[in-house]
Amino acid sequence: MNQVWNIARKELSDGLRNRWLLSISLLFAVLAVGIAWLGAAASGQLGFTSIPATIASLASLATFLVPLIALLLAYDAIVGEDEAGTLMLLLTYPLGRGQLLLGKFVGHGLILALATLIGFGCAALAIGVLVEDVELGLLIWAFGRFMLSSTLLGWGFLALAYVLSSKVSEKSSAAGLALGVWFLFVLVFDLALLALLVLSEGKFNPDLLPWLLLLNPTDVYRLINLSGFASGGSAAGVMALGGDLPVAGGLLWSCLLLWVGVPLLVAYWLFLRRPT
């Protein structure tokens, strides 16, 4: 366990030195506060609207940002060490490949978790202090749920980045594949589902479509943050299919956890078979 923590501490130290933690935290804080007060500007309103509307807007933003940041943070975790010649050196120490991978995951995961807590926590604090008559209990519950799910979403894409980094032999290939993974899950997947729904002309089993949302971690994440509010039924586009899912919130959280654990196991399996 000491070896895992030593690797994690090194990754966390690198993140602090490269100002990853500070940059991500500031980005989250500025965007979250801006959305909280300017999110309804398109409808001619300025100022804080409501907690459900703010969480829905923040979840839409985080769906784009969190996966991209996670992939950028970890796409070169293994292949970068290999190209630099340090991977072979690390493996000469009494350090297993699983410990190295887990240590990197813990370090990168801490960076993402702290950035999420600091950045979005600042927005929650600003709302609690500056908005009159805000329901503090609902605010704490909603933002706590949002920050936890955002962290898990980021960890899932960290694990996917390790899969890519363990598979390829060049950093440039890992970067290109990471961008492809981001496009697939954030942009292409939902468009493909909508296209399937339209082109099938009702022939495709409509009961199956909502379950397909669970194959995309970003859709699971959005379903978690849209559920539990009275306005959750106003979801548009492919998210409207999620209302037909006969499942409790616990299954959605379990799916998000699976999107962390399964890719991490796949990355470990690939790393074990990677030549050095």
Automatic annotation (TrEMBL):
Keywords: Membrane, Transmembrane, Transmembrane helix. The keyword Transmembrane helix applies. Pfam families: ABC2_membrane_2. The chain crosses the membrane at residues 20-41, 53-78, 109-131, 143-164, 176-200, 250-271. This is ABC transporter permease subunit. It comes from Pseudomonas aestuarii.
